[in-house]
Design brief:
Thrombin, subunit H; 3 domains; Membrane-bound Lytic Murein Transglycosylase D, Chain A; 6 helices; about 375 residues; 6-stranded antiparallel barrel; about 15% helix; 6-stranded antiparallel β-barrel; 19 strands; alpha+beta
Length: about 375
């Protein structure tokens, strides 16, 4: 009888231990987490909060494809977070490392609000723009519409439009080609103004009022989600290599100078981030790559045909560095204001001469704050 009771006690203890083991959070599979967006949240901030590494935000964006702007999240949206243990770094054996070099000088944020109208930045996209709606007709006989005018916007099958919602008015350019290769580049999306929805008229038709106009607004212009960009940017030094090219300018300007807005053919998937500082360089002579006598455009087309972008930029950089003669000529400084997967928008901070599309952008680093940055208005980066 005693042995029987002892066996039952042992079995009970084993059962309890097994239960505790299987319910131990450290041993169980990490469950998917979510975060409900509050005003001011960005994917950068969420990655810093949950994972201690803000640079993981592209992965978080990839998991939440409904997000249109990683820097402007809609309060109330539910963000799916990837498993915590997926971002844990593997432990490595401790080893002696050389004393680190003197770090770059810490620079406060710089305020660019007096250099350009951030509401009219626009952007370059390799894809056709998919708008939420378009301006179907106006409440006036005027050919060109402006601030204060009433318009009627058609939002198609969308059922989530409500009075009070604010949208941007956009107009895409024609299909552009790369200035060096001639390959299809994409479209510049110009922001012409903004509107606020007033009331639903019928089905997909809504009455709205133009609240801002930066140029003439036309019937047929597209309606897209409203995005805001902070004027306070933290400048960041970059590795000294080639990152891409200036391929277009705002309003398709032919001459580019200080405070011009330009578009670059590389984005955050190519390693470019908001705040990166670059030098714009023009090549005095390009290495032959066994294509002696050809033009720069022909050389670039031959290289790009066989190599991915990162590889051909690295190859050009390697060839330039092998030569004793300096072939690249610095002609300006620019700072990235906004990044997208494959393109970026930048502002020209300084230029020693007029810039043209096709200029390469090269990384630049510093140990002390460059004079052109120290003279800019400072601000507190949020």
């Amino acid at each position: 009888m005693t042995n029987c009771k002892t066996a039952k006690v042992v079995f009970l203890l084993l059962f309890v231990l097994a239960f505790l083991w299987t319910t131990n959070p450290s041993q169980s599979i990490a469950q998917p987490l979510t975060h409900t967006v509050v005003e001011g949240d960005t994917l950068w901030d969420l990655c810093a909060k949950y994972y201690g590494d803000p640079n993981l935000w592209p992965k978080l964006w990839e998991m939440n494809p409904f997000i249109t702007n990683p820097h402007l999240l809609k309060p109330g949206d539910v963000i799916t977070l990837f498993e915590l243990k997926a971002v844990k770094k593997p432990k490595v054996a401790a080893k002696k490392v050389p004393k680190p070099a003197k770090p770059s000088a810490v620079i406060k944020g710089v305020d660019i609000s007096n250099m350009t109208n951030l509401k009219t930045l626009g952007y370059l996209t390799p894809f056709n723009l998919k708008p939420w709606g378009h301006i179907r007709f106006s409440g006036t006989s005027k050919l060109f519409l402006a601030k204060g005018d009433t318009i009627f916007a058609d939002f198609g099958p969308r059922s989530d439009i409500t009075p009070g919602m604010t949208f941007s008015i956009a107009r895409p350019s024609e299909l552009l080609t790369h200035p060096l290769t001639g390959a299809d580049l994409g479209y510049i999306i110009a922001i012409e103004g903004s509107l606020v929805v007033k009331e639903r008229i019928k089905r997909s038709l809504y009455k709205a009022k133009i609240t801002e106009s930066f140029s003439d607004v036309h019937v047929g212009d597209l309606v897209v989600p409203h995005e805001t960009v902070s004027p306070c940017i933290q400048p960041v030094s970059t590795a000294k290599k080639l990152y891409g090219n200036i391929v277009a300018a705002k309003n398709q300007a032919q001459v580019i100078g200080q405070y011009s807005i330009v578009y670059v053919d590389s984005g955050f998937e190519d390693g470019i981030k908001r705040g990166y500082i670059f030098e714009a360089v023009r090549t005095k002579k390009v290495p032959s790559f066994e294509t002696k006598g050809k033009t720069l455009k022909e050389i670039m087309a031959a290289i790009i045909k066989d190599l991915p972008k990162r590889q051909y930029l690295a190859e050009i950089w390697t060839q330039l560095r092998k030569k004793k003669v300096i072939y690249e000529i610095p002609i300006g400084k620019l700072m990235i204001v906004e990044t997208r997967p494959h393109t970026s928008t930048a502002i020209v901070l300084s230029s020693s001469r007029d810039l043209w599309t096709g200029a390469f952008i090269r990384g630049t680093s510093w140990l002390e704050t460059p004079s052109y940055l120290s003279k800019m208005p400072v601000c507190k980066v949020q």
